[in-house]
Amino acid sequence: MESLRDIRQNIKAIKSTQQIMQTMKMISNARIRRAQDAMTAARPFAKKMYQMVDDLKQDILAMPQPDDVAESWAGRFFINKTGNPKKVGLLVITGDKGLAGSFNAVILRSALHFLKENQDKEIFVFAVGKKGRDFLARLKMPNLHLVYESVGIFPKVSYAHAELLGEAVLKTYFEQNLGSVTLIYNDFKSLASQNLVEQKLLPFHFEATENKKDESDFLFEPGMLEIFKLLVPRLVKANMYRMLLESQAANLAATMNAMDAASKNAGELVAALGVKLNKVRQASITNEILDIVNGAEALNS
Predict the structure, then answer these.
(1) CA 35, 41, 45: angle at the middle one, nearest 5?
(2) Residue 72 and residue 97: Cα distance in Å, rounded?
(3) How far, in Å, CA of 103 to CA of 130, rounded?
């Protein structure tokens, strides 16, 4: 049986851990409001950029292509028939730290499933977050190339981080002639839950919507292709920024919920140890009384 001293030391250690958990919860709670505001502000701009490029899709694809085999620079963002299907890209966005429940685990599990499905291809990986970078760096896959990594950017994501990431993805997409780029991250759904997202980032995959255009034709200056070349990098970087903010808010929410649950569990454990402490103390007192009674009876006999 544990001694009173051992139980008291356990209670003290658990209470100390509980204070750390409560502090982490308070920090996440203070940061998540700012993260939510930034995420909410980024959503309309990114969505509008997608709509603008979607409106130009049919006009861009209707433009003359170089020949039957080649494909225009703009066409690679929609069809990408000249991309090498044996080369794919993977963008993984995780957190930099643990203690966030299953936040990182579900992303890494999905990334591992993607790697197994494409193990016969060359995979060019873009890793955001220390957890994802370390996990991918430990994999011994000869066909896996870690071409870009960004760690320590959470919870202070800026548009500069999105610009660097977007430039790296676009550069690799064209220089390595990738067939596609897939994105895996946690989307912010609510404070209580996060939604795992695995989607095709390049070529663009727009949902089937009927865009109603005005009857009058638009005039583009200096030209449709020139405007498209300006829009595409901004579209990619704007959506990179939105995804980073979504992941940041989801990570903070997961950390807050995990620390809240851990703090409650620690409280229940302290209460259980308190009951155990009282029982051990009572048993000790009872034994001492019995020793005194037995000693008195021995003296009287």
Answers:
(1) 135
(2) 42
(3) 13
Crossing angle of the two packed helices 224-300 and 4-61, in degrees rounded to 10: 170
Instruction: Give burial (CB, 10 Å; 0-12/13-18/19+) of 222.
Output: exposed
Q: Going by C-beta distance under 8 Å and a sequence separation of 6 or more, which residues neighbour residue 268?
A: none
Two tokens, residue 147:
């071409």
Backbone angles phi, psi at 29, to 5 degrees: -65, -35
- At 190, list the tokens: 């609510």
Length of the chain: 301
User: CB count, 10 Å around CB of 200?
Assistant: 11
The tokens of 5 are what?
């001293």
Per-residue pLDDT of 22-60, as tens digits, reads 998 888 888 888 898 989 898 898 888 888 888 777 777
Per-residue pLDDT reduced to its tens digit, 239-271:
999 999 999 999 999 999 999 998 999 999 999
Q: Cα(157)–Cα(235) distance, rounded to whole angstroms?
A: 18
- DSSP characters for 13-61? HHHHHHHHHHHHHHHHHHHHHHHHHHHHHHHHHHHHHHHHHHHHHHHHH
Place of tokens 């999105």: 162
Instruction: Record the tokens describing residue 117, joined without a space.
Output: 């499905």
pTM for the whole structure? 0.83
